[in-house]
């Protein structure tokens, strides 16, 4: 035995913090499936080629595929829990479901590298896919969002990040893959700035300057921190891996946060969103939604890196049997703690919420 690690190689889901990111969401045009498949197969090479010219700038691109597009692009098995993003309509706030077939999450220490890669890929996809959303994110002071609070503090690190974000033995065909939910939130800074710092801290659930979670008894049940705590049957907190970025335009007066959360199952992120928009036993909704409005929402499967290097046959050309969510056991547990084999852990310093 050589001892060689043969576990599936993930895409760069778990990555260190970068100073810039470009998020591109595309829809596949009718008849464009072949060109999109060709571009997906070439993405890793494009990243290597462009990144080689600027070593040390941490250029990477994570590619996600939406539920409808998956069946148009690939024959054979599909990720067990992939489905369209489900709109959530609460008494006061709504999480909309918006178009999205392909997600490109491009990260680097320089925005020009992100932009160059996005431009190359979208030029290749001209006529085959249409950009429905493009957002340029940046790192703000002290890892803060545009509300002035540190964003990303509680992200899992190291092996915990891999266990939270990467699919394991529960779906062996896609071990090393992930699921990702993206949403754009626009902030009402005039209303937000009308609050005192103490009131803002109660909304978020952390102190603004020191970034310390408010203690029990002070923490309000409708704070962002309280509402987003999701526990499993054993009382252990379920985690996701966030890579949020601020974005904005001073000319348009638009200021926001691009939420992007990776998880080995979409159920965790979806439960957090249900808590936020539909409420919990102790809160009608996440109080932060009174100041931040969701304007997009999509769910994508992130296949392991090898899947993109060797794409399965196109629909109608392969003979593999396609699996659907109805084919997997009705067990919603995360199986965290029983992950065998554990996808290769990748050290991370990615910021967390």
UniProtKB/TrEMBL annotation:
<dbReference type="InterPro" id="IPR048328">
    <property type="entry name" value="Dyp_perox_C"/>
</dbReference>
<dbReference type="InterPro" id="IPR048327">
    <property type="entry name" value="Dyp_perox_N"/>
</dbReference>
<dbReference type="InterPro" id="IPR011008">
    <property type="entry name" value="Dimeric_a/b-barrel"/>
</dbReference>
<dbReference type="Pfam" id="PF04261">
    <property type="entry name" value="Dyp_perox_N"/>
</dbReference>
<keyword id="KW-0408">Iron</keyword>
<dbReference type="GO" id="GO:0004601">
    <property type="term" value="F:peroxidase activity"/>
</dbReference>
<dbReference type="Pfam" id="PF20628">
    <property type="entry name" value="Dyp_perox_C"/>
</dbReference>
<feature type="domain" description="Dyp-type peroxidase C-terminal">
    <location>
        <begin position="142"/>
        <end position="305"/>
    </location>
</feature>
<keyword id="KW-0479">Metal-binding</keyword>
<protein>
    <submittedName>
        <fullName>Dyp-type peroxidase</fullName>
    </submittedName>
</protein>
<keyword id="KW-0560">Oxidoreductase</keyword>
<feature type="domain" description="Dyp-type peroxidase N-terminal">
    <location>
        <begin position="11"/>
        <end position="138"/>
    </location>
</feature>
<dbReference type="InterPro" id="IPR006314">
    <property type="entry name" value="Dyp_peroxidase"/>
</dbReference>
<keyword id="KW-0575">Peroxidase</keyword>
<comment type="similarity">
    <text>Belongs to the DyP-type peroxidase family.</text>
</comment>
